[in-house]
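User: Round two. Same drill as before: sequence, then structure, for each protein.

Assistant: Same drill it is. First protein:
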Amino acid sequence: MVPSAFVTVPALPVTANGKLDRDALPAPDFGAATGDTAPEGPVEEALAALFAEVLALSSVGAEDNFFTLGGDSILSLQLVARARAAGLRLTPREIFEQTSVRALAALVADREPGRRRSAPPSPTPGPRPSPRSCGGSPNAPVPPTGSASRCC
């Protein structure tokens, strides 16, 4: 795993037992990583507000990377849920592929609200032929092992 942030501290805090006191470590400031590119248009503004809400930041720029700002897979699911509640159709995969507000807004802007992407064709229902059955019929007789005769 790659750390999402590095925080410099003058000394590591320790407990009375001499172990690292993780609770006393300062939290990373992801707000310093936000850019100054303002979102343009209603879709970018809505996505920037959702990024900021999910990541607990005051604001997010249009070119900011979701994962650089502290996002992770769980937060991406929260972002998708909140975006759908706001009428924006996103998938978790799209957040991993297009990580900035502007790139995601470009995906969302071209979609119609009622249109769904076509799903891959589902396999035909019904029983699969057994590899040992004759003619692929599940009710066909199966020859005994070692039999010299063939049923097909």
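Second protein:
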Amino acid sequence: MSNYVQLGDVHTYYEEDGEGEALVLLHPGLADSRAFEEYVPEFAQHFHVFRPDRRGHGRTPDVEGPITYEQMARDTIAFLEQVVGGPAYLLGHSDGAPVALLAALERPDLVRKLVFSCGVFHHDGWAPGAIELDDETLAFFIDYWGAVAPDGREHFWVVKEKLDRMHREEPTLTVDDLKGYPGPALIMVGDRDEEIPMEHTLACAKDSPTRSSPSCQAPTMAALTPGSSSSSWRAERRSRDRLELVIWKEVLGPVHVLGIALIVVGVVVLNTGLGH
């Protein structure tokens, strides 16, 4: 079901499916809620699934001023308050990951459990050249973004410039900041991911509350997904490995996913990914 909600100065588009406990999916950069649509039928059997398009993405228009992770986290908090109406399982992939993390740090009461997939907590975590798009990928995103953009296809370059600045300068969290979320978390990365050095992801897992404090009861787990990366989502249309996965019971509940590679919410497709 398609809806709009006014979150501050942003007329935000979102999709809503299923019933049960709320699961909010935060898409990668230059992508939108369509990134998850293939996997919604499975998850809608177990969760009330929400897929908002962030400002300047998908069917949500851009607004004046920069795009920042902090602002998108505030938008996410407003979405949890106004639309979800309470705490939710929160998953962010790539650009969605730091948005989810910042929202969880700011309002842990609204995040039941956190999934941080193929993202960075500091902009230094990107491998050299990782945030640069080659011509083929750029052409793909121009078409993908422009297909639904309310601001028109030509506005792509405005949004891209805003995101380029954001990727160069944000986020700026430290390992000490990561200790601020007290709930359970699953931190994920693909073993073929060339965009984010493994050390960065391991630091994120190592310095989470569970690893840092023996008294913390909330589990934090790091998951390495075999044969996967966070780049070249376009390849998903051509090639996909198959895998049986059990979504961590400690994180999202006892959901068993068969067949097509669905890791947590199918966002890390084997040998594929989606943007930043």
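Helices lie at 40-43, 69-84, 96-106, 135-146, 156-169, 198-206, 209-212.

User: Perfect.
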